[in-house]
Amino acid sequence: MSDSLNSSASRHPGRPKGAPRFPEGPQADPAGSHFERRIRSFQPRRSRVTAGQADALKRLWPKWGFDIDGGRVIDLGELFGNDNPVVLEIGFGMGEATAQMAAADPGTNILAVDVHTPGQGNLLNLADRGGLTNIRVGNGDAIILLREMLAPDALDGLRVFFPDPWPKKRHHKRRLIQPEFVSLAATRLRPGAILHCATDWEPYAEQMLEVLTAHPDFVNTQADGGFAPRPEFRPLTRFEGQGLDKGHVVNDLLFRRVPHTTSAQPPADA
Ligand SMILES: C[S@@+](CC[C@H](N)C(=O)[O-])C[C@H]1O[C@@H](n2cnc3c(N)ncnc32)[C@H](O)[C@@H]1O
User: Fold this and answer.
1) Tens of pLDDT along 190-215?
2) Most buried one in 78, 112, 133, 184, CB count within 10 A?
3) Is the domain 43-264 a CATH 3.40.50.150 member?
């Protein structure tokens, strides 16, 4: 018997047309931002959700998942049940690398965000099977999470592994790593936090290096100002494997959030 659940309502006689796929699970367009005139870094895709992923979404979403609805600032201590450092990962895909990193570092909380429903189910399953309690899964646009739902200095790190490369020139504006995004991320990263990016698309790697090097809130951890050697703690990701199969070169970038400048502090009499 097939393991897959098809998303088409007509093949789900029990679900009326227009009803949510997962009533207690991740919602489509949780922030209601579909009609917002904003360029997005992801391509909405309707993908097949396997029975195993659907089961994980049903069982575990109420416990470990949350919608990025832009409606509140998250209390991260409450979300994770402890005050351990929190690292945000944007775009975890199917979540294999995320789960491995969470298992290797149980003292760090991982806020893992993507819009991809099968990946959300997959990561919940991996966390459950691995007995990992330090992962929470956010559904929606990470920009809205950063902008509306995280307090200043909330994060101890940010990971962006193999973001969509948007190779066509007319799509470059959809790339995540741009000055505006880096400025927004900087406000949510405490001083000393590491922004770790990796990509197998060399022109994008060059863009990342240029944008991050020019940004006043970050400093390269590499004394020579270049790419970092691949850190041992970063597992091979699914997209990375596909890139390597095509002969692509992988580059890692590790930049540190610099201390707040005095000009960024509120005035003494405020
Ligand atoms: C090319 S995939 C890489 C996945 C994974 N990191 C890997 O290396 O296998 C990029 C992922 O980022 C997600 N993504 C892109 N922009 C996003 C955003 N603004 N908010 C949340 N997820 C995003 C996409 O849905 C996609 O799953």
Assistant:
1) 999 999 999 999 999 999 999 999 99
2) 112
3) yes
Give, in order, the Cα–Cα distances in Å from 21 to each of 5, 43, 94, 126. Answer: 10, 19, 19, 21
- Give the span between the Cα atoms of 121 and 3, in whole angstroms: 14
What are the φ/ψ torsions at residue 114 (nearest 5 degrees)?
A: -160, 170
E-assigned strands of the chain? Answer: 4-5, 49-50, 65-67, 86-90, 109-114, 135-139, 155-161, 189-199, 218-220, 251-257
- φ, ψ of residue 23 to 5 degrees: the values are -55, -40
Segments making up each domain of the chain, as ranges: 43-264
Six-digit token pair at 95? Answer: 């979540």
pLDDT of res. 132: 98
31-36: average pLDDT: 74
CA nearest neighbour of 123 among 100, 146, 156, 157: 100
Question: Model confidence over 209-233: pLDDT tens digits?
Answer: 999 999 999 999 999 999 999 999 9
Kindly name the residue from 69, 164, 217, 252 that is annotated as catalytic.
164
Compute, in angstroms, the gap from residue 104 CA to the centroid of ligand 1.
22
